[in-house]
Amino acid sequence: MDKIKIPYHIGIIVDGNGRWAKEKGLSRSMGHLEGSKTLRRISLYAFEKGVKVLSAFVFSTENFKRSKEEVDYLMNLFVKEFGTNFKIFKEKNIKVVFSGEKKGLPNDVQEVIAKMEEQTINNDAGIFNVCINYGGRKEIVETSKKLAQMVVDEKIKIEDISEELFKKNLYYDLPDIDLLIRTSGEIRLSNFMLYQLSYAELYFPKTYFPDFLEKEFDLALEEYTKRDRRYGGINYEK
Hints:
single chain; alpha/beta; 6-stranded parallel beta sheet; two-stranded antiparallel ribbon; 8 strands; globular
């Protein structure tokens, strides 16, 4: 095989924690706990491999429809993980940002988000974008409102609105996703970073997320290396 190509920006839809637990006779909570460990482990591995931006879809706006018990557990797990175990990203010089609607999240979750963003704001070895209470359509709608208000306030003119300006006004101005990975075998986008996924390569391993470790990640990179990326019929190399 040719030299492995490393995507600049990888998106991961974290999926299969509950099914992983069910097949092992464990509670869904145990699945989420193991998934959080995998997220920390595989994220660090991705940056070690040379990935510059990693976006992880960990909790959608629709996930609030789950049982109160499961939602409460996930919120508490989030606080625990990012309040303690994910401090390693600060040490590794990784900037941590959060995409999604912070309003509606529990106060302690909002506090952890603010703290992590503040403590890593000047880090420049990579960007870890955590999508929580996130929806791709919601992001596009909110960006449209933001630009419309800028027109009303005469900060910009309608003709100033371009794809690039729109992208700069999303939750965060991040480069487009090069490779999207969705674990567990489900083959759909589930409203994840729709604007940024326009030309992404898609990879759907059947592995549940708690088992998506280094070997599985390397297989994703191997598959990405085989892809002939084309933008409108034109071969593209980053």
